[in-house]
Amino acid sequence: MAGRRMNGEGSIYQRASDGRWVGAAFLGYDERGKLLRKAVSGRTKAEALAKLRQVHRQVDEGLPPPDDRVSLGQLLDRWFAEVLRHQLDPSAYENYRSIADNHLRPTLGRKRLAKLTVLDVDRLQSAKLDAGYAVSTVRRIRAVLSQSLDQAVRWGFLARNVATMSRGPKAPRREGRSLTPDQAQKLLDAVKGHRLEALYVTMLALGLRSGEALGLSWRDVDLKKKVLTVRQALKRHGTTLVLGDVKTPKSRRSINLPGPVVAVLRSHRARQSRERLAAGSAWTASGLVFTTEVGTPIDPSNLRRNFNDVCEDAGLGHWHPHELRHSAASIMLAEGVPLEVVADVLGHSSIRMTADVYGHILSPQREAAAKAMEGALWS
To answer: Considering 110, 182, 255, 379, which has the largest number of Cβ atoms within 10 A of its Cβ?
Structure first.
């Protein structure tokens, strides 16, 4: 049964065998004069016409018509080979590769992009949650899938990204643990004279991430101007420690140093000079501020063990180095430092992120605001 067509729609008809509507868009001729056409189909005439119009729109915009033969696995192969390896540092690339190989290829790798649905994405997330994966991992799986489908849209393989139309799983927000000012003072007393005293003091005072602190270079520390610049971070790539880019563009930042931090860094630099002389030819000139006794980067695993031992000896119990970052933010906010300044010091991508994580600390300020309004309007 033939249907009427409008100009530019191509031919469209209803197939007798299954009742589906089938259309063909005519795209011109190849170099040998052969007619080029793109076939589409839909359950309804409107669906088929919409697909035909999408083909014509893409051709008009200089994009190739959607290729409904491409599978998700083929897309991932091309995405990694032609895009990601030029955009990501090695550790991030391996992380993306692990997500793709362990979660996307086994479940949806053979699925054609044109047949991928929001339901497929929701089922994938549900299956991963049921298998016991953390919400953060499932969100990461969805994020990698979404980014790959974004690339498919840019390449003209797809008209829409079904992953963005799905909803990621939600998790109850867990507030990060923070040292109280009294606990922080107890820690500072406990690390006096410790070989890594300057590292722990700097992390607590500035809220640096562990990788940022361990990747800090002396060329980025100006003790005269009392300014420290975060430009790189120490990361693990397989079994190797490498210096790479910071977490986000906003993470590149300069931070003013409190006087006591300047003093402890000066002492640390003198200590490091003595260690370099003692090590002699065994010293590795990494240029890093915080190193082992022979100048090599400090392994984050060793940092975690050492910091926990320091906290245990100080009577504070078990603590993780990252909790120094939470503690820095909490103390700054409790002392009335404006939210936007704290976000800038921490290198957060937005003030909203700072508010989401540390908003509970702002309640005294909110109470002060309420009292101020009460005094102004009803006194």
So the answer is: 255
Residues 224 and 191 in one domain: yes
Q: Which position has the token pair 């722990």?
A: 200
In the block, which residue shows the tokens 């919409």?
A: 50
Alpha-carbon span 113 to 16, nearest angstrom = 27
Please name every residue paired with 41 in a beta bridge, in sequence order, or none if there are none: 22
Query: Using alpha carbons only, how large is the chain's radius of gyration in Å?
Result: 29
Asked if the model's pLDDT at residue 69 lies above 60, the reply is yes
Residues 19 and 129 in one domain: no
Question: Residue 54's domain spans which residues?
Answer: 11-60
Give yes or no: residues 156 and 232 share one domain: no
Dist CA 260 CA 114 (whole Å): 61
| Same structural domain, 90 and 143 | yes
pLDDT confidence of 265, banded at 50, 70, 90? very high
Overall number of domains in the chain: 3
Rounded CA-CA distance 32/292 in Å is 68
Mean of the per-residue pLDDT values of the chain: 87
Question: DSSP per residue over 111-151, as a string?
Answer: SBGGG--HHHHHHHHHHHHHTT--HHHHHHHHHHHHHHHHH
**Domain of residue 154, CATH code:** 1.10.150.130
- Regarding whether 89 and 55 lie in a shared domain, the answer is no
Q: What is the spatial distance between Cα 344 and Cα 206, in angstroms, rounded to a whole number?
A: 11
Burial class (CB in 10 A: 0-12, 13-18, 19+), 362: middle
| β-pairing verdict for 232-237 and 21-29 | unpaired
User: What is the spatial distance between Cα 346 and Cα 344, in angstroms, rounded to a whole number?
Assistant: 5
Q: 268 and 204, same structural domain?
A: yes
Within 10 angstroms of residue 202's Cβ, the number of other Cβ atoms is 27
| Inter-CA distances, 240 with 40, 87, 244, 303, Å | 50, 20, 12, 16
Mean pLDDT along residues 79-98: 90
